[in-house]
Amino acid sequence: MAKKNRSEEEEEYFQREDIEKKAxxxxxxxxxxxxxxxxxxxxxALNTTEDVAEEALELxxxxxxxxxLPLVPLIQVAWADGKVTxxxxxxxxxxxxxxxxxxxxxxxxxxxxxxxEEPTGIFFDRVNKVIRNIVDDDPGGDIHTNVLSWSKxxxxxxxxxxxxxxxxSKNEGAVLDEFAEIFGVTDN
Length: 188
Known about the structure:
The protein is built from 8 helices and no strands. It has helices at residues 6-46, 50-58, 72-78, 86-98, 106-116, 121-137, 142-157, 170-183. The N and C termini lie far apart (86 Å).
């Protein structure tokens, strides 16, 4: 077998590099197209703009889990006292069904994860900004009209001390007040 001369080896090297470069560009285009499609699907699921959907995508939501996003304030209220009670868990799950979050789906699994493992304050803050943008885009929409009352219902689900005290704790009340300010809404 004859030994290849240096220029043939160099030529093969540059050809391989060119093929790898083209493959990388093709993968990047495919990822960009997938991301664009996902953004459109999130926007459709949340009835919002693609810019708002991009923010949701950055937070880890996709078209399957986007329905959980409007429920995050309810989850935040449930976590206000450091744990989610069984009644709060159930209340959020009932509301989730009304948003089309069905058992044995990625959205349901994500919802349960958020109820079982407390999300960070940063996550809640970023999601609330996304919800604020949704509210701004659709001021007469269901989320704007009901987010505070839904959250209050979750807070009340934890009860009080044998019905003798206010069912909403101080921490839950503070979160509800924060929502009223962030979302520009009042309780109905």
